[in-house]
Amino acid sequence: MAVNMKGKDIISIHDLSREEIDQILDTAQILKMKKKLGEIYHPLKDKTLGMIFQKSSTRTRVSFEVGMWQLGGYALFLSANDMQLKRGETIADTARNLSRYLDGIMIRTYSHQDVIDLAECSSVPVINGLTDLLHPCQVLSDLFTVKEKRQRLEGLKLAYIGDGNNMAHSLMFGGAKMGMHIVICSPSGFEPDSEITRLSRIDAAQTGANIEIVDDPVQAVQSTDIIYTDVWTSMGMEEEQEERLKTFSQYQVNSSLLEQAGEDVLVMHCLPAHRGEEITDEVIDGPRSIVFDQAENRLHTQKAILALII
Ligand code: CP
Ligand code: NVA
Description:
By secondary structure, this protein is α/β, with parallel strands linked by helices. The protein folds into two domains: 13-134 and 298-309, 3-Layer(aba) Sandwich (Rossmann fold), CATH 3.40.50; 136-295, Rossmann fold (3-Layer(aba) Sandwich), CATH 3.40.50.1370. Helix content is 43%, strand content 14%. Helix 2 links the parallel strand 1 and strand 2 (74-79). Helix 1 (18-36) packs across helix 12, helix 2 packs across helix 12 and helix 5 (136-150) packs across helix 6. The two termini are 19 Å apart. Norvaline binds at residues 130, 165-167, 230-231, 234-235, 270.
């Protein structure tokens, strides 16, 4: 039985039910198939998506823009620097105005609260395209990619090596909802947010998942199905880069760490990668890496989200 998601905001995976996540993944699979078969599918004819960016983007911008176009709609790129937001117009008034023109809003910004405020004052659905706290579209797409490769999610183990950042948080929420064991391995002081940990453990208790926080990468990757990593310095933290390079030096995903995991381990990264820092060329370009499949699947999964909520 399909769940009606029309008008739903996509702000955090924690807000989605397992049925809704399954529906997004199933729809993504259908849309990916349609695209590969060259089938035209325009459920969003005459619909528009505004995309507000306060931070840089390659994958999110292009996959949302192309996705809207492939669904028969239109996407507008709105650089926050060129909007009145930059000159002090509030998020709330921006939402009230944009809702009069658009059928959906995607926003990439710093403060997670800004996305919540935008959604509260918007009469059209709002999609979180990344905040300092969460990156739900990336992880929904990653769940799709893992399912595509392994035909299941429940019971799989994913070891995330690196900063307890927006990616770690969304992986915890996504894994917890879908019954995956998530091990977050971060240096002391860079562990995930305690409230996200608490909430994901509540979800995990419902699905039989485990959410573990450790600090030893070798221990973390034992009998894991997936090794995941992300940059050590996220957008907005550039002034900490030098210090972080030192702190995270033992947290690199390289061939010797891979040897500690099973032969069929999958290596994932949301990209962009800082090659030679959190991941080596040998690993990201090696046979275990599925990073470019992940990047492609942003398109199919976000098309599913758009078609379901607009
Ligand atoms: N993974 C991801 O969100 O990439 P962009 O920053 O290029 O959008
Ligand atoms: N943690 C990274 C993810 C980029 C997609 C950042 O926030 O910069």
